């Protein structure tokens, strides 16, 4: 009783003192989600909103995660945050190979310097294309009977389906019911129900209807065959129990409907039908999923450093929810100090200041997910007792509930001196007992003690308090065997914590009851798939060894397998050939597992390869030589180091008489002869399986490839609405090698796009063209020496009003064309179903099917496939090809973030198919591998302390550039982290830096970033600001220094004319003279005057219209630009220096391949070029602001 009275006295005294310092205790911050996102079904092409709203008195920053990562909403023109924190997707994008909006979203709210909370997750699903898995079928039913009309669609389309009868919507009631699956049930049928029914998908763009299904009413009644139906859960004994519950109803003649479903409705249901002569029964299992629900949420909590706390979280649901914890939005990973106890509670041991923040309990099952948060505030330790805001601390562990007070105010009196003679009176493997003596100066009675302890080398300290005042011993439990700990003891009186004792380091005892490691573990490979392992009995067995557990894993694999072994040896079989394995052994006695041996690595023996070489291909060199190429067998089937390859070949289809060589080029062959080849790989153990026979035929005579081919002897075109069919005949000189044909085409320009086809091909369909357009087409034969002389043809595609292009059989179309050799009378079918699966930023796997094979797609003959691929950037990129004998091929060494097209052709003997339909794949993004280029620094006209820095995007951006970082410093040798940093949005190529120091050298460099991270830094650019208050400085910074504006450009001479001279390929020359004036304190840009006066071209003008042509002052080319520029075009106001003499014309003229001049073009350009003010973009272009007719330059 005396002890209890002393504790109450201590509590009330500390509670009284808390009134003095209560206003100094930090309060909890209200911070929660008032609205959280929910699962959403979106429609392609329409907007979608994921709602999120945060309730807090403090300023909150809201962000969104998609599939666990933060998307860059600032650079996204479709997704943006609205004012309340919700996410708006203005237009949902969704296709078979591009689903950027579908995924799992989560709202994340942050209060700076306080913490972060995350909402529940919500899945955004985009409804697929309206389609029916199967069509409803016509049915017949007698009057009074029931029937079901099925409507099979995917689950996300069901909400958009309804039924129509004879074109009118079907009205549902208790007799006519549409099931959740979309099927229509008609019960108690009558003649009025007969008619034509169809299922309709509406609300996803144009409505889509199924085929009509007829419902016929047969004569007679359904009484003779009518069954009496009973439905009941198996646990219920009578049907009456179900019928008495209004939530159960039988509809559609035999369908059990349950409304307001509860968890208790789960079970096995039986349907029983009885017609008096026969009884049949079937069963169905009903599983009810219940979303998670909190029974107990985590609570806000105060604590001190070194305390142990527990956040409680109790949930229920079906299936049982899984629980995870977050701290400030990041997942809590269980460790020695963060533990999951009592299934779902989070225990934090030895609090430190960084543990403060918001903790969240997230519960999830298949039916949904929920979250609840709590705030942890760690109070400062003082020297006087101030009660924690709660009278008791139920969330603390039992070891710390007595120590519930700590000072926040001023000292009320002296505190105890350090406890004396702290010793470890008892040391075990998992606990240590500490004792000590009273402090020399306790300064009061009822002294309590706190023991702080930690692992040696750890900064996280835990605390345990004595169970009663005056007690001077404590036992620390749950320690780790054979581990060093540091202990210190602090005494407390009513005035607060006293001084700490000197730290005491004690090591726990090692475990001695379990066996030690098994010595002399050895492993010897005896075959390519087996290893013999031996070991000896542990020196410290600590009793009888009951068994040994052998652990093993394959090198590079994280998972480890094990097996029980009796004895001191074991032969491990079934291993992979020529593979490294890691082995270790653990001995077990009655106390459990002992100490493991060190890992021992051994490699199984090699064997012959178990697979044939890949991608075997033949290239006929001349009449007596064939080049054979292949790739090694798959790495996992090589079974050893490859020592070489064996090539077997024979004439034609003969069996036997096959020669064997070890080279890759076969010479001394017979001209005009067909040969078959197969290749096998070898190791030191022998040869593996060989490839299938592959056939090639030498040329009948050697052809010349020392010169390019001649022009094709003829070129014919047939225009359609959206395509042009091209056919041709080979060059007349058949003695020159032709390896393929290059077809160029474009509107008015035959070099806009280029495709290359095989030398065997004699026709090609150019698709995806514009109707009623004039196309120029060129055709050239090529070989290894280059491209030959082109031939030209032009054609105008038919208007859109013409009938749609028929499906043209190109073989039939050109089979009888004069001078065109007929294709193979039985051409092979091209591969189908070509797919391009993106593997990484530089790898795409191409797969296809071959309709000319059997259904099992097994290749049993000598056919091979040629895969070709290319990218359209730049437009004249050539195809790359590879041969393979399988139905897949992995293409590597591609460019990141690049769209590639793939097509496949099959060849068997002399027969080849046409190229298949193309498949497309875009490689993933990766870090930029080059720096921004063309970095220039220009002083701001009239503002010497301001500069403009301009640049061009990196050549190898490897993804969409999301931003740039500009570094600048006056010390070129300073560390990068000491440079001044200014971020710039990714859609800008210029930036203004102000308030620089006059007459000072600055150094600049730029770094680009994409979604994968930062690229390399550009070369340093040097620039020196002007001296004094000069207003007319304008310098271009270069890597070597600076250069002033040339006198004949935008110089300072009053009344001087500036001449802009531009030359076009077509021989058109335009000269525009504009007078430049200088006004004190204000320099005006040189401008030409129109009839309406001078106009400024600003990027912010709402009425800005794009020019029809760009005239680049460096490259001097005419380039069409997009009619819909970006909303924020990147412009610079810096004048463009003119470093070349305007009269220097010879260096810019180029020859026009078409003869003659375009007089109309010359007149329009002369009239319009000087009639409007010129402007300068970041890439230094001049603009023609008036529309100009189309000109063609070649």
TrEMBL record:
Domain Fibronectin type-III: 418-511, 517-607, 612-701, 708-801, 830-929, 931-1028
Keyword Cell membrane annotated: no
Keyword terms of this UniProt record: Disulfide bond, Glycoprotein, Immunoglobulin domain, Membrane, Repeat, Signal, Transmembrane, Transmembrane helix
Domain Ig-like residues, every copy: 30-125, 130-216, 256-287, 292-377
GO BP, sorted A to Z: cell-cell adhesion
Record-level GO cellular component terms: membrane
Primary location: membrane
Annotated stretches, region: Disordered: 1118-1155
Pfam families associated with the record: fn3, I-set, Ig_2, Ig_3, Neogenin_C
Highest taxon, organism lineage: Eukaryota
Signal peptide annotation: 1-22
Membrane topology: Single-pass type I membrane protein
SUPFAM superfamilies the record matches: Fibronectin type III, Immunoglobulin
Subcellular location: Membrane
Matches recorded under SMART domains: FN3 (SM00060), IG (SM00409), IGc2 (SM00408)
InterPro entries in the cross-refs: FN3_dom, FN3_sf, Ig-like_dom, Ig-like_dom_sf, Ig-like_fold, Ig_I-set, Ig_sub, Ig_sub2
Sequence similarity: Belongs to the immunoglobulin superfamily. DCC family.
PANTHER family membership: NEOGENIN, PROTEIN SIDEKICK
Designated name of the protein: Neogenin 1
């Amino acid at each position: 009783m005396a002890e209890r009275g002393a504790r109450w006295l201590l509590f009330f005294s500390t509670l009284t003192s808390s009134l003095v310092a209560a206003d100094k205790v930090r309060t909890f911050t209200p911070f929660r989600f008032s609205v959280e996102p929910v699962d959403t079904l979106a429609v392609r092409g329409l907007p979608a909103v994921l709602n999120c709203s945060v309730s807090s008195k403090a300023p909150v920053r809201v962000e969104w995660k998609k599939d666990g990562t933060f998307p860059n909403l600032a650079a996204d023109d479709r997704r943006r945050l609205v004012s309340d924190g919700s996410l708006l997707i203005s237009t949902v994008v969704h296709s078979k190979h591009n689903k950027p909006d579908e995924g799992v979203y989560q709202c994340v709210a942050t209060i700076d310097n306080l913490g972060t909370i995350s909402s529940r997750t919500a899945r955004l699903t985009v409804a697929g294309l309206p389609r029916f898995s199967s069509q409803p079928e016509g049915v017949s039913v007698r009057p009074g009977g029931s029937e079901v009309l099925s409507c099979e669609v995917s689950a996300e389309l069901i909400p958009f389906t309804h039924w129509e009868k004879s074109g009118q919507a079907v009205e549902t009631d208790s007799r006519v019911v549409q099931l959740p699956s979309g099927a229509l049930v008609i019960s108690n049928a009558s003649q009025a129900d007969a008619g034509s029914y169809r299922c309709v998908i509406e609300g996803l763009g144009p409505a889509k209807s199924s085929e009509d299904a007829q419902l016929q009413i047969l004569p007679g009644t359904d009484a003779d065959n009518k069954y009496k139906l009973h439905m009941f859960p198996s646990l219920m004994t009578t049907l009456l129990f179900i019928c008495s519950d209004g939530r159960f109803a039988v509809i559609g003649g035999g369908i059990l409907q349950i409304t307001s479903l509860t968890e208790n409705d789960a079970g096995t249901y039986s349907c029983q039908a009885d017609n008096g002569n026969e009884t049949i029964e079937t069963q169905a299992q009903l599983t009810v999923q219940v979303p998670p629900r909190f029974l107990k949420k985590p609570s806000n909590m105060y604590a001190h450093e070194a305390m142990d706390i527990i956040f409680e979280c109790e949930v229920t649901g079906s299936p049982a929810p899984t629980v995870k914890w977050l701290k400030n939005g990041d997942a809590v990973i269980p460790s020695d100090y963060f533990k999951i106890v009592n299934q779902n509670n989070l225990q934090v041991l030895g609090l430190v200041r960084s543990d403060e923040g918001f903790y969240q309990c997230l519960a999830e099952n298949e039916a949904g997910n929920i979250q609840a948060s709590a705030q942890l505030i760690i109070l400062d330790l003082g020297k006087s007792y101030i009660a924690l805001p709660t009278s008791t601390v139920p969330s603390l562990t039992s070891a710390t509930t007595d120590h519930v007070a700590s000072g926040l105010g001023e000292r009320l009196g002296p505190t105890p001196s350090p406890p004396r003679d702290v010793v470890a009176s008892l040391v075990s493997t998992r606990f240590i007992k500490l004792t000590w003596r009273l402090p020399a100066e306790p300064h009061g009675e009822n002294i309590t003690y706190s023991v702080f302890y930690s692992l040696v080398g750890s900064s996280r300290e835990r605390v345990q308090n004595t169970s009663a005042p005056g007690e001077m011993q404590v036992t620390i439990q749950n320690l780790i065997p054979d581990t060093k700990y540091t202990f210190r003891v602090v005494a407390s009186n009513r005035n607060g914590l006293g001084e700490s004792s000197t730290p005491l380091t004690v090591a726990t005892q090692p475990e001695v009851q379990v066996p030690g490691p098994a010595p002399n573990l050895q492993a010897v490979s005896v075959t390519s798939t087996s290893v013999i392992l031996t070991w000896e009995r542990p020196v410290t067995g600590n009793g009888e060894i009951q068994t040994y557990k052998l652990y093993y894993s394959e090198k590079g694999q994280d998972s480890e397998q094990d097996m029980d072994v009796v004895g001191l040896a074991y032969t491990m079989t079934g291993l992979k050939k020529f593979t490294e394995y890691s082995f270790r052994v653990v001995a077990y006695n009655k106390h459990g597992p002992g100490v493991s041996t060190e890992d021992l690595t051994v490699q199984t023996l090699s064997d012959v390869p178990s697979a044939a070489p890949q991608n075997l291909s033949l290239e006929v060199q001349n009449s007596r030589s064939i080049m054979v190429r292949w790739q090694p067998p798959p790495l996992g089937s090589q079974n050893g180091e490859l020592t070489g390859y064996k090539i077997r070949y024979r004439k034609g289809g003969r069996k036997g008489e096959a020669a064997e060589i070890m080279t890759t080029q076969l010479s001394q062959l017979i001209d005009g002869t067909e040969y078959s080849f197969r290749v096998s790989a070898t190791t030191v153990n022998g040869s593996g399986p060989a490839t299938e026979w592959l056939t090639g035929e030498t040329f009948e005579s050697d052809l010349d490839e020392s010169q390019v081919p001649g022009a094709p002897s003829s070129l014919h075109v047939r225009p359609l609405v959206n395509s042009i069919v091209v056919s041709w005949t080979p060059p007349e000189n058949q003695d020159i090698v032709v390896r393929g044909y290059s077809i160029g085409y474009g509107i008015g320009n035959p070099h806009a796009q280029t495709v290359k086809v095989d030398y065997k091909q004699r026709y090609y369909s150019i698709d995806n063209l514009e109707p009623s357009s004039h196309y120029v087409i060129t055709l050239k034969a090529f070989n290894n020496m280059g491209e030959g002389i082109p031939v030209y043809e032009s054609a105008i595609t038919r208007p859109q009003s013409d009938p749609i292009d028929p499906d043209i059989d190109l073989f039939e179309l050109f089979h009888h064309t004069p001078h065109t050799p007929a294709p193979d009378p039985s051409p092979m079918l091209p591969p189908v179903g070509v797919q391009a699966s993106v593997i990484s930023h530089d790898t795409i796997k191409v797969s296809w099917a071959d309709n000319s094979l059997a259904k099992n797609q097994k290749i049993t003959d000598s056919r091979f496939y040629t895969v070709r691929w290319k990218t359209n950037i730049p437009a004249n990129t050539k195809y790359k090809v590879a041969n393979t004998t399988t139905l897949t091929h992995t293409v590597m060494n591609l460019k990141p973030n690049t769209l590639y097209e793939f097509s496949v052709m099959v060849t068997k003997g002399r027969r080849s198919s046409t190229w298949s339909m193309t498949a497309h794949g875009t490689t993933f993004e990766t870090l930029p591998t080059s720096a921004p280029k063309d970095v220039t620094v220009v002083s701001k006209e009239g503002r010497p302390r301001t500069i403009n820095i301009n640049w061009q995007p990196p050549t190898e951006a490897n993804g969409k550039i999301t931003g740039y970082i500009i570094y600048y410093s006056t010390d070129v040798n300073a560390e990068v982290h000491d440079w001044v940093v200014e971020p710039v949005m990714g859609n800008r190529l210029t930036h203004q830096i102000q308030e620089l120091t006059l007459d000072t050298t600055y150094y600049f460099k730029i770094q680009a970033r994409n979604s994968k991270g930062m690229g390399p830094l550009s070369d340093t650019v040097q620039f020196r600001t002007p001296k004094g208050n000069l207003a007319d400085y304008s310098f271009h910074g270069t890597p070597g220094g600076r250069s002033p504006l040339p006198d004949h450009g935008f110089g300072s001479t009053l009344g001087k004319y500036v001449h802009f001279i531009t030359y076009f390929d077509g021989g058109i020359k335009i000269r525009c003279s504009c007078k430049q004036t200088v006004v004190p304190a204000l320099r005006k840009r040189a401008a030409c005057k129109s009839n309406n006066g001078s106009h400024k071209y600003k990027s912010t003008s709402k009425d800005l219209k794009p020019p029809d042509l760009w005239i680049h002052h460096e490259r001097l080319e005419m380039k069409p630009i997009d009619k819909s520029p970006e909303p924020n075009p990147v412009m610079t106001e810096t004048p463009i220096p003119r470093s070349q003499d305007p009269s220097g014309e010879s260096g810019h003229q180029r020859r026009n391949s078409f003869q003659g001049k375009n007089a109309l073009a010359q007149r329009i350009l002369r009239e319009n070029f000087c009639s409007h003010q010129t402007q300068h973009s970041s890439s230094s272009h001049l603009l023609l602001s008036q529309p100009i007719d189309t000109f063609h330059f070649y």
